[in-house]
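Listing 4. Sequential folding, example run.
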Amino acid sequence: MKMLVSVFLALFLPCAGMSAVFVLYLCLLWYAASHAADSNSPSKPPPLTGLSPSDLEKLPKTNGHGLVLGSECAVCLDEIEPTDPARLLPGCNHGFHLQCADTWLSKHSVCPLCRSKIEPEVVCSSSETESPC
């Protein structure tokens, strides 16, 4: 009888252990698959919100001579010549070619160099001081 119990335990315990590991493995697979389905459905990124053409007109324009910080356009990586029209962003004073800045700012409302938020509502040219922006 003792030998029968020993043989039974010798066969049963490894089978029971392997079955438990297999069930645990299946549970982990099910858990990973159910949570992967949730993370695979990407949430829609927020739409790009750039500045409107009227907001772009409120931003200061200058030429290459009027730039405060450097003379390289960070958008196209080309030098801004002294006679080239340029856009000087308020707040950070970074300068870019006028067309490069307007193209960027029509899709993004941040400076392409330092990522500071551009707020055209607070920018007025000197001719508009008597009327609100």
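-- end of first protein; second protein begins --
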Amino acid sequence: MMTYRVGYFVGSLSSTSINRVLSRALIRLAPDDLEFHEIGIGGLPLYSSDFDADYPAEGRELKAAIESSDAVLFVTPEYNRSIPGALKNAIDWASRPWGQNSFDHIPAAVIGASIGAIGTALAQQSLRSVLSFCNARQMTAPEAYIHFSPEVFLEDGTITKPDTEEFLRAYMAEFREHIERVLTVLPRQQGE
């Protein structure tokens, strides 16, 4: 059986991130042939093109983590109706220097949780726009704007509401199919 290596980003730097809890649930519900590793974003300096000629170790490690992945999953909160700054900074690092975009042709999915009613809808739309420019191959449906409740999403990734669990299981199954479809048509080269 083919195994796909999925790098995932948690857009929040908070130690109490509800999106980290959501990421645990997604990993728990994912098909067995998806292998996950977190791509950390907290240690990156702010991106500047001044670094393009000599990328620091943090930037090279980020790019290597993405390039060693078959696909990426973004699990992000919404800050001020947009993408958290740390996540945008990581995307800027990964997509540069010009001509060395680590997101080029990579299968990608976007999801997020919020305690608010719109469940990160605007952040996801902002993120999708940035990923389009980066030429990532995005899964456009199903969309998943998760209203987070600690009674439903337990710290260990357990979900107590069956219909929510089934929806997220189906989301991850569709993501797996998306990865296969994209990589069948356009195989990624390691280190590309």
